[in-house]
Structure formats: C-alpha cells, structure tokens
Amino acid sequence: MNAKNFAVTKFLVAAIIIGLMSFWIFKTTKPFNEFAYGIIGVMLLIVGYVIYSGIQALRDAKSGLNPVDELSKTITEKAAAIAFRISIFMWLFGLFALDMFLVDSVNKAKFVIATGMMGMTLIFLITRLYLSRAGIDENKD
Amino acid sequence: MKTRIKELRARDSLTQVDLAQKVGVRRETIVFLEKGKYNPSLRLAYDISKIFRMKIEEVFIME
User: Fold this and answer.
1) How far apart are CA B35 and CA B54, in angstroms?
2) Which of A55, A93, B20, B45 has the most beta carbons within 10 angstroms of its beta carbon?
C-alpha cells in the first residue's frame, strides 16, 4: 500500500467512526450519563489519533518516505501484545468491580463490553504513543 | 549495539531524510537507529551498509 492510499484509509476509518458515533448520538432516545460521555471522549481521542497518523502519512508521502516500515510494524505489534496482556487483568478487575457496584443486569453486559473495548483501545493507543517516542531498546532484554 | 550511522551520514553529507528515502523507512527509524534504541532487521542493516559502501559489522558494532 502506498503512502497516499494508507493516509486515505486512515481518514476513511476516522470518517466511519465519526459517522457511527453521530448515528448513535442522534438516534438514541436515552439521556446521556457520565459513562456515555466517557465513551464519546475515548472515541474522539481515537478519531484524533487516526487523523493525526493520517496527516503524518501524508507528510511522509510528500517527502518520499515510506509511512509503514519495519519499526512502525514492530511498534504496532508490541503495543498490541502489551495491550492484550494488560487487558486480561483489566477484564478480571472489571468483572470484580461490577460485583461491588450495583448495576442492573440488562446494562451490565453492555457496561462490561463497552468498558473493556474502550479500555483496550486506550491502553493500545497510550502504549503505541509511548513506544513511538521511546523506541524499542532490545539491548536491555 | 552501537552504530556509526551518524558519523557516516556526515561523511557522505546525507541527511536523515535522505538516508530514510534511500533505504525505504521513516525518518524516525533512522533517529532511533542512531540513538541505539532499535536493532534493525538484517535486511535494513544490509541496505544501510550498502549505502555507505561498508560491511555490516563496520556500521553496526556489537558491544
């Protein structure tokens, strides 16, 4: 995939997320609570990150650079692995925490899934950003 | 692992972007390589060494 197609794919993903989020916001009949605002905040963070990486890819394309190289692939794989490992404990903690707070059974499943998905995404984004800044020092292993 | 990329770039008057373009990676990859914060694949090490017309072990030094 060349740099321009890569950037266009990123913008398309951002547009799909915004579209789905708008659909949810305008079609829902229930009033928004803190949890819903939290989810919207995380979604906006994701959209911001996707747009930022799309702009970066366009800049790389202009400079004749490859936006996806071996380091970026390694960072993505490592961030995904770390997010997965952390999320195992997060899911466990989430299930435990739900038993401590009173949440009605209809919303319980939605709450667990939404929190888990947003949590995993946030952990992935933070880890990826950290590794992008810090690099992967394999000499320390 | 240490690298002599920065020194060799200066010798050949290459910027980080020039080198990145020649070996098909992002500029950040060259930055991390120079700082010793990333161990390149054999293919990338070979490509970089070829740009500087040197052997891999002359560019990348294992400590």
Assistant:
1) 20
2) B20
Mean of all residue pLDDT scores within chain A: 84
Q: Does A107 touch chain B (CB under 8 A)?
A: no
Taking only the tens place, the pLDDT of each residue in A35-77 is 788 888 888 988 998 898 889 888 888 888 888 888 989 999 9
Token pair, residue A21, equals 């989020």
DSSP-derived secondary structure for B8-32: HHHHTT--HHHHHHHHT--HHHHHH
**Residues A136, B44: C-beta atoms closer than 8 Å:** no
How far is Cα B38 from Cα A118, in angstroms, rounded to an integer?
30
Specify whether the CB–CB gap between A101 and A112 falls below 8 A: no
Least Cα separation, residue B52 to chain A (angstroms): 19
What would the mean pLDDT of B34-39 be, rounded to a whole number? 89
Q: Which residue of A has its CA nearest to B42?
A: A70
Contact between residue A51 and residue A11 where contact means Cβ atoms under 8 Å apart: yes
pTM over 0.80: no
- Separation between Cα atoms, residue B38 and residue A31, nearest integer Å: 49
Question: Hey, CA dihedral for B8, A135, B39, A70, is it positive or negative?
Answer: negative
Lowest mean pLDDT across A29-33, A101-105, A112-116, B20-24: A101-105
